[in-house]
Design a protein that fits this description.
This protein is mainly α. It is 84% helix and 0% strand. The longest helix has 27 residues.
Amino acid sequence: AWMSEEQAKAHQSFFKTVLAVAASFFGVRGSKQHEADMAQLKPLHVVVVGIVMAALFVLSLVLIVRMIAG
């Protein structure tokens, strides 16, 4: 195997965090899924991923406006 079990769990946890934050951005998370995420995900990871995703969102909006405005 090219990835240890610990690395695989960390990768899966990171992916779950990204999905949870993305779903929260769009407001499509059910309450049961939200409760399950809160029990599993680390708050610091959620905050960091949220800040990064918000920054990417703002940067993408700025780039779109610059392309349209010319």
